[in-house]
Model the fold of this input.
Amino acid sequence: MDDDEHGLDAAYALRTPQDSLRYYAGWAERYDSAFAGAMDYRAPAIIAAAYAALGGDGPVLDVGAGTGLVAEALGRIGIGPVDGVDISAEMLAKALAKGVCRATVVADLTQPLPIADGAYRGIVSAGTFTTGHVGPEAFGELLRVSAPGALFAISVHSAVYQDRGFAAAFAALDAGITGFRTESYAIYGPGADGAHRDDRGWIVSFRKAV
Done:
């Protein structure tokens, strides 16, 4: 994985939306096998389980949906419909081809989203809030498109939680959210290898205030 031009080191080295567009266009065809399968990627199933355990229901927006791994996991436990938003049209095409997303939106999460206010009862995300990807600036728009009382269950890589300002951003939301909690978890399972096999993240959950 580490020597692959589409491995985790390359993903973590992304810096701009344009970098992401080029990178994921080239990785879409084999993302599920070359990354998710090869690295025993646990985050999508863990986020889906956390969302379900907290009483989440649909409609759900999968943020940074990629090939639809979180939507697949939600579907297996009977939660939907799920829509996906991602900067990569190629990745979203894979999600649509699987039939796991009701609809997809190609959009830059650092910009205003072409989604109506209060459209979703839930927001989920795995693998998007990480090194080289999207920062906490996305949460203003995500709160806008979520309904009052909407449940958020997202993963944030431990390497960026403090340094990229996620902890401070969540604290600043204050009265705008309720039930905030975090839980540490292993991003990859025992089948993973390479330098990132022991990476950890935070499951961050809360509800938008009513």
